[in-house]
């Protein structure tokens, strides 16, 4: 089963700046979000991290910022990676939900 068939929530095209930090090494990567859902996002960037890597995600758009822990669920070398959000704080979920409501209307 591919990723599209396994998705349980809608995914939307979404353009925003992203910063991905790998806490274990302190590596910081700047990328661009191209898709987002309530459970995760896809980040466009050339240098990817290995599948399973724990990361901190920070997405900046207009006046809002969304920050949450996540995990790399797949990577496409030279293209980007899919990140699943994990244990999203309630205040951050509120920001994410407001973006998704705007995208879904």
If you had to describe this structure to a student in words, what would you say it looks like?
The protein has one domain: Thrombin, subunit H (Beta Barrel), CATH 2.40.10. It is built from two helices and six strands; from the N terminus they run αββββββα. It has helices at residues 3-6, 90-104; strands at 12-22, 27-36, 40-44, 54-61, 64-76, 80-85. It is globular and about 35 Å long. The N and C termini lie far apart (29 Å). The mean pLDDT is 91.
Order of SSEs, N→C? HEEEEEEH
Number of helices: 2
* CATH class label: Mainly Beta
Distance between the termini: 29 Å
Question: How many discrete domains?
Answer: 1
CATH-wise, what's the superfamily?
predicted glycosyltransferase like domains
What is the residue-averaged pLDDT?
Answer: 91
Helicity level: 10-25%
Percent strand equals over 45%
């Amino acid at each position: 089963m591919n990723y599209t068939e396994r998705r349980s929530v809608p995914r939307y095209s979404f353009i925003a700046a992203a910063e991905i930090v790998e806490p274990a090494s302190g590596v910081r990567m700047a990328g661009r979000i191209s898709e987002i859902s309530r459970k995760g996002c896809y980040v466009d960037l050339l240098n990817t991290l290995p599948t399973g890597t724990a990361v901190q995600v920070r997405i900046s758009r207009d006046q809002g910022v969304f920050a949450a822990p996540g995990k790399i669920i797949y990577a496409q070398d030279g293209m980007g990676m899919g990140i699943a959000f994990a244990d999203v704080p309630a205040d951050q979920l509120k920001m994410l939900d407001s973006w998704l409501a705007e995208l879904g209307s």
